[in-house]
Amino acid sequence: MTQFLTRSLFFSMFIVFRFCSSNGSDEQERTLGIIKPDGISGNYTERIKQVILESGFEISKEMVIQLDEENAANFYAEHSSKSFFTNLIRYMTSGPVLVMVLEKEDAVAHWRDLIGPTNAGKAKITHPHSIRAMCGVDLEKNCVHGSDSHQSAEREIAFFFKEAPSEDAVSQT
Ligand code: CDP
Ligand code: MG
Predict the structure, then answer these.
(1) Where is the Nucleoside diphosphate kinase-like domain positioned along the sequence (predicted)?
(2) E-strand stretches of the chain
(3) pLDDT digits (tens, 9 = 90+) for 120-148
């Protein structure tokens, strides 16, 4: 009888432990990744996607889009007063981009880690294994985007995937 009670107690504790730990550790987060025009024209798309998948992200949505000036300016509105803004808009509208929703636990921070610092030239020295070191060139042409916070990620995902862009500008998978 005592043995039965001990076993039942252990079994109950095991169930409670599994329930608590699965609730705490499996929480998925979403972030927005973009392969910028230089990443696409430099044929880095497949290599970048391979790194994404090998790093445990799921690509839950993706879309190729040619941004126009208005789209790009709205997306980067936070930088509208910066000296680099005009060049940034020219860069982001210079060819198609691949926009992706990336999902995993702690996705925002993990994707920022994986892409490396904004200045791709410096990333080649300080973060040689980062994506920006692999395919970026300098402070502007850094080949990928990553949301900088959970709030930005949700806003940026909604920007691309809840609005309905015109059919001729978009091919969605
Ligand atoms: O993309 P990230 O969040 O790392 O950097 P940001 O400060 O939000 O800047 C957005 C984008 O503007 C960068 O990814 C660069 O392409 C560009 N940029 C630039 O051309 N010159 C700067 N001094 C800073 C950013
Ligand atoms: Mg940013």
Answers:
(1) 28-168
(2) 29-35, 58-65, 97-104, 144-146, 170-172
(3) 999 999 999 999 999 999 999 999 999 99
Ligand 1, atom 6: closest residue by C-alpha: 118
Residues in the chain: 173
Which pTM value belongs to this model? 0.83
**pLDDT, tens digit, for every residue of 20-73?**
444 445 689 999 999 999 999 999 999 999 999 999 999 999 999 999 999 999
Q: Which structural domain, as residue segments, surrounds residue 36?
A: 28-172
Ligand 1 in reach of 148 Cβ (< 6 A): yes
Number of H helices and E strands in the chain, helices first, is: 9, 5
Domains in the chain, number: 1
CATH number at residue 96: 3.30.70.141
Residues carrying an active site annotation: 145
Q: For residue 32, tell me if it sits in a domain.
A: yes
Task: With respect to residue 130, please indicate whether it lies within any of the assigned structural domains.
Answer: yes
**Residues within the annotated binding site for ATP?**
36, 84, 112, 118, 132, 142
